[in-house]
Every structure is written in structure tokens, then in C-alpha cells.
Records
---
Amino acid sequence: MRRGNAPDYIEPTVGWRVWLVVANDARQLCLRSIAFVTVWTPRAELRARCIRPRRLLARIRRESPHEVPALGCDCGIHAAKDAAAAVGYLSAYEDLLKGVALHRVIGTVSLWGKVVEGERGWRASHAYPARLFVPPSRDSSPLPAEAVARSLVGYGVPAEPISERAHPELVDTLASAGLAGAYPRCTARRNR
Ligand SMILES: [Zn+2]
């Protein structure tokens, strides 16, 4: 994978994100951002762009394009500092994304290039998924988690269904967000 202009000796920052799983024009499953119609292409870095200079108000004010991510703007590829800060996106905008999202996955994302730190996470100029965890099927996402994980193998990073045995902390995080219905024993474990 090409890593842009980032020197190899700089370790990427690793954050947490939630992605939609959508079907592309070739009917293959791929990752998409939630708030934007940005598809994350397998084996290609994602580079952030800022759409603000194209907006009418910015054009009237003659704002010039800026380096991404910029202070005072919201641009850049967003990632949270931990799973707990990202997990809410597993159920966000469900009505809006009905018929678009076949499933959702949570995972870690490598951030590099220009990275701006905020209170709860980062905004970066470059990103690529690092590790993908697939929650169980829900009514809104009927595909089996195993099938979703297999379909994401083209990204070349670990993609696995979330299991209580292998990922107890992640299951706890899902439980605290009210999303652990498919893990029958986690309530008992949390009460121990
Ligand atoms: Zn911007």
C-alpha cells in the first residue's frame, strides 16, 4: 500500500471509526463513511479534501482552499480516541441510511500526513483501515457477520466478526451503548 508522502519511520496515529458496508457498482461490498458519500477503496489510501471553499458563502467571502485538515474548519478524516467514543455511530442515522447501508463495522484506522488532535479524537489528511470488527446482524443489516468479514478481505487488513470470547472489551463497549443484544452472556459478565 502506498502511504503518500509520509516517511516510513513515522508511526501512524491509530484511532477508532465506524464505517458503513455498502455495495459498489460492481456489487462488491466496500466501506463507506457515514456522514459523507466517501467510499474507502481497498488498498488505496484515503486522502481528505475540504469542501468548504466550494460552498457559496465561502465563495462570496473569497476564501481560498486550505491545507487539510485546517484549524478552525471541520475538514479531515475523523477518528475517535477509543471505541467508546465511536460506538454510537453503529446506530446513528439509521432512518437516513436505510437501503444504503448493508451493515456497519467498527474498527481501528491508521491516520497519517497532517493530523490535528481534538478533545475526543483526530482529523487527518490521510487514512486507511487498520483492523475491522463486524458486529452481529440486526434487522437493519441482515447479512451474517461472517459473510461481511469475508467480503472485506480485499482491504488486506484483519476483518473478523466480534466475539465475546475474543473481544470482551469491545463487547462491553457495545453493551454500554445498548448494542449488545446478540451477546447473551455479556450482561452476566458485566455484573460479576
Ligand atoms: Zn477545511
---
Amino acid sequence: MTKSDARLRRAIGLDVGGTKIAGGVVDGAGGVIERISDRPAPTFGKRAVVRALLDVIAELTRRHHVDAIGIGAAGLVDWPEGRIRWSPNNGYTDLPLRRVIEDSTGLPTAVDNDANVAAWAEANAATEGLDRDYSVMLTVGTGLGGGFILAGEIFRGSSGVAAEVGHMFVDSRSREICSCGNNGCLESLASGTALGRAGRLAAEAEPHGLLARLGGGPDGVSGLVVRQAANLGDPTALALFERLGYWLGVGAATLTTLLDLRSIIVGGGLVAAGDLFLPHMRSSLERHIFARQHRILPEIASARLGSEAGWIGAGMLSLHELYRTESNGADVRT
Ligand SMILES: [Zn+2]
């Protein structure tokens, strides 16, 4: 099979997040053949998650001939075993998802971290204009995820759990406790959760301010309320987005200093408000990067596939791995 044949093949792609399962059928170039409506993700229990995934797979295989299955899952995922070690939002540990799905369906399956597959989709399905062979995708949503593409391949570290950019320690003065239990993590300063928390503190300090009024009191202030207030020109809310951009820029500068990146793709739910923080992220990156005058600065760009990057990338990755396996097999035979 040639690489162009691989692009004509089809795969099921699935994205298991903290709250929902998204998915559909794609070809090897990332073209969407069908997308399903989002399903709620079971919040605990391995069997419930596996059953929900197999239901979707059965539904899609009734309508399409597919060659492989790809799954992106939130949490720590061993590669290539596809074993989910720990997924704090889904409440399960030690789930050998790849083996379970392959045994049940008979189809070759790839299971990887959700941020990795999203980065893979952004690097391969939306290549126009940007050099994405050395790129990091930052997923700014409830938390802060990261996916690294280095020399055109996903970089996963020795066992698959690299690129946890949200848990880089960046601020020794911060008292914000992160979802991981540490303090001073980038995620605790630059995520939707961090934005909402900072908004509540600001509303407490200004009980008659716009944030408190839009939230119906400090406790009602969420990241979305901060965004509404910022769009109305509220200086407090705008300053919170500036702070978000500042910390993302700190993270982007550190990653680029280490990895000599060409592009930084920003995705996740908050990218819809990118105008409010991406310029601040850019200036913070320039301020914190090593040897600014003597290097090519990376471009910062918004993700193009939006919330679909995860499942599209999972499907594409499964076909990439199928092609790689078959190519290696041919090598052995000759
Ligand atoms: Zn953390």
C-alpha cells in the first residue's frame, strides 16, 4: 500500500473528554465522512465508558466500511499500549482501552492522549501557511493541555505521558491550587478554570462592578461571565484576559526556548475569545524567550478544527499507524 492509498482509507475517530464523547468517520487526509452528535461521557466506571464507545463504534460500522479505530482520551495514556493510566475527570485508572476495543471489534486501534491527537490533526489536516513540523498545540479549556509535534511526529516521551504543559511549575508565589494538587502550575494560572476563579476574586473586591452584576454576585462569576464583561469593555475583565495571555506567553516562551518551535497552535474552548488574550500572549512570549533578537520567533495561531480536532486527529492517527505497521511488515517480508 502506498501513502496515497492510506489517505483513501477510512477510520472511526473518537474523543473521550471529561463530559462528552465526540466522533465520526474520517479519511486519512482528515476529510470528514460523517460526524455523530456528541454523547455524554460516563463520569465513572471503566465498563460504562467501554460500553458507550462500543455503542458508537457499532453504530458507525453499520453505515461505513472502516479500516481502523482511533481514540483520543483525556488523561495519562501509555503509548503504544493504549492503556489509560489515570484520567482525573473520568474517574478511572488502569484501563487497557486499546486491547479491549481491538478484542471486541477485530479492528486495529490506536489510543492516545486527547491533546496529542488534536495536535496531530492540526499539524496534518490544516497545514496551510504555517510550518507545523515543530509545533506545540495548547488546548485552553477547563484545563490546559499540550501536544507536541517534533520533526513531524507526535512526541510522547519514553512511555507516552510527555507534554503535560499545564503542570509545568511557573510561579513560586502563586497560592492557586492546581487540579493536580500542586501549586504554581501553569494550568492554575492559564485556563478557563483559572479565569473563572480570578473573576470571582475580582468580583468580591468590586461588589458593584460589572463582573459581580453579570454573575448575580461573586459566586456566579465563571470564565464565560468574564468573557461577556470583557466584550463589554470592562477593564477588570480585560485585565484578567491580559493575565491569561501573560501566563500562556510564559509557557510558550519556555517551550520554544527548549524546543525551537516554529508554531504554537492555540485551541480549546477559550480560543473563541482569542482576540482578548492572544496579543498579550505574543508580547509575553517575546519578553520571556531566550535570545529574542537572535532567533526566529514562532508564530502563534488559532486552531482551525475547533472542538473537532480530537476525534478527527484520532481517526487520522489510527490510519497513520496502520500504514506504518503495514509498511514495516512489507520490509520484513522482503
Ligand atoms: Zn498541576
